[in-house]
Write a sequence for this structure.
């Protein structure tokens, strides 16, 4: 069957967009300073240099010598990363938004080829496959929050930054997956859910029965006095529990210790802070990854 002329033109446009973006990227590499830094080009023609430490739908957070700066997407012309694999990841995400699944996979696979340890690229491949399966499953007239409650058995509310689980139905998919009331939803397939309306977050989580999703939650936990020592390591994604030590599971990332963020905290200091709290208990905020098969 002959494809509609409009759809062919759109496909060509997406391919041209992808190729043009890549050519621009490669030429821009020649202009970047030698310092190992990410560069944000703003809409007024200026540049900001530093390290992108957070990426959200509407903003990025850049760590600079003067401290962290939040830059809204509306003020950004382009972002280029010091690591080539992250540029391919960035381009893949752009073309995926355009619905070009093949081009997106190509960029994500290139990122993995450069850096096989880049978990975000592996997750992006999962996100692309998930988005392709959901393309015809999610109806435009679908009530997203109602669909979320039906499939996952949870009701979402808006937290300060993250969508939050307000209610959870007993025996639900969410309960079996390990979600609890009060959990914040951090990311789906490593893509941030922060600052999204609850409906937009629900759209990321729902999908065809039998399909899978990687979900990252945020949870506040307390290690009571007398708890055994936690084996901690500093991984690329942050301070990580190397082994299970209830209420922590192996692989949990500790993002805050007694209210202090761990992003710039040296490993030895973090270890001392966690263990020093063993005599009186210590408050932790963790990120935990869940792999869930939808029903």
């Amino acid at each position: 069957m002959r494809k509609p002329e409009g759809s062919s033109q759109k496909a060509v446009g997406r391919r041209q967009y992808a190729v043009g973006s890549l050519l621009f990227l490669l030429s821009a590499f020649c202009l970047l300073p030698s310092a190992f830094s990410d560069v944000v080009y703003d809409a007024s023609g200026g540049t900001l240099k530093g390290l992108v430490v957070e990426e959200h739908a509407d903003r990025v957070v850049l760590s600079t010598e003067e401290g962290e700066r939040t830059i809204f997407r509306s003020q950004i012309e382009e972002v280029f990363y010091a690591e080539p694999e992250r540029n391919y990841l960035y381009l893949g995400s752009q073309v995926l938004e355009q619905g070009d699944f093949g081009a997106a996979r190509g960029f994500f696979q290139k990122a993995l080829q450069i850096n096989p340890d880049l978990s975000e690229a592996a997750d992006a491949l999962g996100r692309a496959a998930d988005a392709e399966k959901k393309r015809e499953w999610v109806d435009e007239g679908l009530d997203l929050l109602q669909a979320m409650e039906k499939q996952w058995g949870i009701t979402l509310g808006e937290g300060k930054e993250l969508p939050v689980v307000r209610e959870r139905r007993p025996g639900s998919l969410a309960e079996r997956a390990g979600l609890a009331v009060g959990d914040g939803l951090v990311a789906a397939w490593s893509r941030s859910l922060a600052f999204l309306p609850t409906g937009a977050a629900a759209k990321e989580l729902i999908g065809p029965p039998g399909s899978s999703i990687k979900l990252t939650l945020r949870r506040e936990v307390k290690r009571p006095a007398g708890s055994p020592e936690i084996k901690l390591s500093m991984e690329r994604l942050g301070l990580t529990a190397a082994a299970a030590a209830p209420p922590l599971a192996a692989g949990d990332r500790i993002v805050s210790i007694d209210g202090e963020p761990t992003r710039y905290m040296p490993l030895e200091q973090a270890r001392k802070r966690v263990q020093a709290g063993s005599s009186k208990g210590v408050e932790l905020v963790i990120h935990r990854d869940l792999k869930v098969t939808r029903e």
Summary: The chain is about 35% helix and 30% strand.
